[in-house]
Amino acid sequence: MSKIYYSPSHEYIRVEGTSGYIGITEYAQKQLGNVVYVDMPEVDDDVAAGEDFGAIESVKAASDLISPVTGKVEEVNSALVDEPGLVNKDPMVNWIIKVSIDDPAELDALLDEAAYSELCH
Amino acid sequence: MNRECYGKLIFELSRKGRGGYRLPSNGCTPSVDELPEVLLRRTAPELPEVDEPTVVRHYNNMSTNNFGVDTGFYPLGSCTMKYNPKINEEMAADETIASLHPYQPSATVQGVLELYYTLQQTLSEIGGMSEFTLNTYAGAHGELTGLMVIRAYHAGRGDDRRVKVIVPDSAHGTNPASAAVAGLKVVEVKSREDGTVDVEDLRPLLDDTVAAVMMTNPNTLGIFERNIPEIASLVHEAGALLYYDGANLNPLVGVARPGDMGFDVMHINLHKTFSTPHGGGGPGAGPVGVRKGLEHLLPNPRVVKKDDGTFDISYSDCSLGQVTGTLGNFAVAVRALSYILSLGCDGLDMVGRLATLNANYVKESLRDAYLLPVDGVCKHEFVFDGLIDKSGGVTTLNVAKRLLDHGYHAPTIYFPLLFHESLMIEPTETESKETLDDFIRVMHDIAREAAESPDVVKSAPHNTPVGHPDDTNAALHPVVTYKELIDNVQQ
């Protein structure tokens, strides 16, 4: 059973056990337009809540990717290297990195789906 | 007229053995044997072989595909694409200036040094600063140099804790980039809805680790920062310095001075405010000014006036060092000074006022069709958030492309990032009312078209040498050389 949290900077984290899959939201991909590059960290890199872990570039803009939690990178979605446009197809399926979650309490500071869609409204 | 046969790439026009010249044998050609082995190339250079008329027609045709401020109105926001008066070019091309050597003895170039010194002094007067250096090659280079001055200032006081630079989220992208290159950490301060800095958000960020706050005034939305005296005193109380990004200096010329607002260090883009060629037409120059007490840190060398009235190039041990080989892009300085002197004080006084009037005229004329997210009097530029009526699905990108069909350069689009459909227009003071009226008419036509036949706008441009490119594919798989193009075709 997974639960999804959202950040005000338009990332989501889908929590599964002690790890989470981080990506950008449907709203974010729509605003960015066609994604042409995703700059990702490497496995075992540290990420910190509120700090950037990479960047995403579209034909319209480049934007930092902000980690919603503190932890370590367990996996990166290497399919995005050759096909960054997957993010546009389905950002929830095409997550960007998988991280370990050091402190589950950090999740409480994030938004649930209702609060996030209110923000995007 | 653009003839397609000459519009091909010069390599496509090449025919083996063809050429535009024939040299007689003069018997003096050095024997290949006399040249060192290491300097001899193994293969012939891959140069196009073309006859002279083809070369001339090829490049002349190509030149008509170009768009510049000499061809038409160029309302590119944040860039101040004002007309570049031809007298600037005439002065810079003067043989006494064009044939100088950078290491000529000072005694042989007194007039040139005086010119240089005069521009330093004039910019100091315009910016309200104590001293200026012209030793930078571009606006971003000016920012970097300015931040190096700030680092040197803190280091000189033995304060090594200051590693952060605060930058508004609406800032030009060069601000955080320059700070990072200068080895400083960027902290973003949020702006309010009108893009002005929120003093309450700034206050808690100011501590003894902050080296500087970078701002531009008016800000990116063309709105004047009314709280600037309060911001300046907060920054100074925290022991930091206030940096002025001169990108938006144009509306202030002759009206207000960054130095009087409390800015400590600033740069000016001569290629914006002072009508020197811009972008690919460069080279650029980003002179850096400092307030009293920071002069000694400016980069080496400096042009100084000696007590006997003569001029010299001086090097100081207190300086942060050299950021250019010699004295920067001197020919650009000549153009800027030509502009300043040909306008004179009275003319300069009108620059900011007319730039502001023109921007407000265009803004008010178009607000019935384009969404104006921040109301009120703007300075030299303003931002629309796309069309008011977005029902046809026409985006800012589409509007920009459609403008090309009408012979206008596109405004800045998708910057600032504060809005999703930013369309940033800066008319500058050099445009006539007739030009502005025609631009306004075209913008209205496009808005109408967007509602009535949106597909025409979405598939624009239709009349340009290059049509609607596939942006995504171009960014993903850029083909940047002729060889790559040929290889792609062959595959």
Blueprint of the fold:
The complex is a heterodimer of chains A (121) and B (491).
Chain A: E1 3-6, E2 11-16, E3 19-24, H1 26-32, E4 35-39, E5 46-47, E6 52-58, E7 62-66, E8 71-76, H2 79-82, H3 86-89, E9 97-100, H4 113-120
Chain B: H1 4-7, H2 52-64, H3 86-93, H4 95-98, H5 110-127, E1 131-133, H6 139-156, E2 164-168, H7 174-181, E3 185-189, H8 199-202, E4 210-215, H9 228-237, E5 241-245, H10 258-261, E6 265-267, H11 270-273, E7 288-290, E8 302-305, E9 311-314, H12 330-366, E10 382-385, H13 396-405, E11 412-413, E12 422-425, H14 433-452, H15 454-458, H16 471-476, H17 482-490
Parallel strand pairs in B: 2-3, 2-4, 4-5, 5-6
Antiparallel strand pairs in B: 1-7, 6-7, 8-9, 10-12, 11-12
Task: Explain this structure.
The complex is a heterodimer of chains A (121) and B (491). Chain A has four helices and nine strands, in the order βββαβββββααβα. Chain A starts with a strand and ends with a helix. Chain A is globular and about 35 Å long. Chain A has a single domain, classed as OB fold (Dihydrolipoamide Acetyltransferase, E2P) (Beta Barrel), CATH 2.40.50.100. Helices cover 19% and strands 37% of the residues of chain A. Chain B is α/β, with parallel strands linked by helices. Chain B folds into three domains: 61 residues, no CATH class; 257 residues, Aspartate Aminotransferase, domain 2, CATH 3.40.640; 126 residues, Aspartate Aminotransferase, domain 1 (Alpha-Beta Complex). Chain B is built from 17 helices and twelve strands. Chain B is globular and about 75 Å long. Classes of the chains: A alpha+beta (121), B alpha/beta (491). Chains A and B meet through loops of A and helix 16 of B.
